[in-house]
Design a protein that fits this description.
This protein is of the alpha/beta class. The protein contains eight helices and 14 strands. The strands form three sheets. It has a six-stranded mixed beta sheet. Strands 1-2-8-7-4 form a five-stranded mixed beta sheet. A three-stranded antiparallel beta sheet has the order 3-6-5, with no helix packed on it. Helix 5 packs parallel to helix 8.
Length: 332
């Protein structure tokens, strides 16, 4: 061994021998956490405007998402209802101690203008409805229970339905038309979200064996673009009130009749339909709240028991189920 290497080795031994325990490098774990009560399984359910995020230590907050208005102190002034946004949280004491938090707008006040125009009255329990939906997402898919997803069609603000612009019966089957002059149609945003939702269903391996749609083309096209696999069956009981051929007392009663006809086979049915299928109106069904006016490409789960009783299993939105897919498949 050369003299240079010998000297270097002796120097290293001397340094190690004289090191004290308190000189050792210790990896400090990331201690920054969200402590808000509404933080459930990696999702913060923001249930009001002027909502203050709570953390385990002082932190600064920011987000580049246009759906949220948030201060550096973590006060969420507004979060668009049903949307999921990413928030960066950085420890005030240590900038290297940071996390990314995802928040869902679950109050019933902040829909953007296009959705507001086509929504109905507020629901009875927006927070509880979304929380239950988030819990149901964690249970699915299942091979031991039968579910249906009652989905509002994708974004559709192109044109207006014939009866809103004219008097009389109009052209035959105008509600089935693909023309904006006769019936409201999907926007390009809606078409893209429907395609994306189909990918999410496949990624989550949902056992969709039946697809039932309203006769209105915006609902049919939503089902076509989701492309879940089974052939699409149309059912006039699911039609928008602008032209509901069934006359069974509304969309919600029409949905109840459909649920009663479905087999209990531990599979899933996808239903593409319209607002106000989320409103019970004059019906009383155990477990069902007046569901929030879910936005386009949003919906709620129904579980069908062997005795054909049904239970409400929570609300989802497109951004919410997409986030859950990314979380589950570790894409974040």
């Amino acid at each position: 061994m050369s003299n240079f290497r010998l000297i270097a080795l002796l120097a290293l031994v001397l340094v190690l021998a004289t090191c004290k325990d308190d000189d050792k490098v210790v990896n400090v774990p990331n201690t920054l956490k969200v402590t808000s009560e509404e933080f459930k399984d990696e999702l913060l359910l923001v249930n009001s405007n002027d909502y203050q995020i709570k953390t385990s230590e002082p932190a600064t907050f920011s987000s580049a998402d246009t759906f949220i208005e948030i201060s550096s102190t973590g006060l969420i002034k507004r979060l668009t209802s049903a949307e999921v946004v990413a928030i960066d949280v950085v420890s005030t004491a240590d900038p290297n101690n940071k996390i990314k938090v995802y928040a869902l707008g679950v109050n019933d006040e902040n829909y953007d203008p296009s959705n507001v125009f086509y929504n109905g009255p507020p629901g009875s329990d927006p927070y509880g409805s979304y929380l239950k939906g988030w819990e149901t997402l964690h249970k699915l898919p299942t091979s031991s229970e039968t579910y249906a997803l009652i989905l509002r069609h994708a974004d559709a603000d192109q044109g207006k339905d014939y009866n809103l612009l004219n008097q009389g019966e109009g052209p035959p089957n105008w509600w089935k038309s693909k023309e904006t002059a006769l019936a409201r149609q999907l926007s390009e945003k809606g078409r893209q979200r429907a395609r994306d939702l189909g990918t999410v269903f496949k990624d989550l391996k949902y056992p969709i064996t039946r697809v039932v749609s309203s006769e209105f083309y915006r609902a049919v096209e939503t089902a076509e673009l989701i492309n879940a696999g089974p052939s699409i069956v149309t059912d006039g009981r699911l039609n928008h009130p602008d032209y509901n051929v069934a006359r069974v007392g509304g969309l919600f009663p029409g949905m109840l009749l459909l649920m009663d006809e479905l087999p209990v086979d531990n599979k899933m049915t996808l239903v593409t339909t319209h607002h106000p299928i989320n409103e019970l109106r004059n019906r009383v069904v155990p477990t069902f709240p007046n569901v929030i006016p879910f936005p386009w490409t949003g919906g709620y789960f129904v579980k069908i028991a062997p005795d054909k009783t049904i239970t409400f299993e929570g609300v989802i939105s497109y951004p919410m189920i997409k986030y859950y897919r990314d979380l589950k498949l570790k894409r974040l």
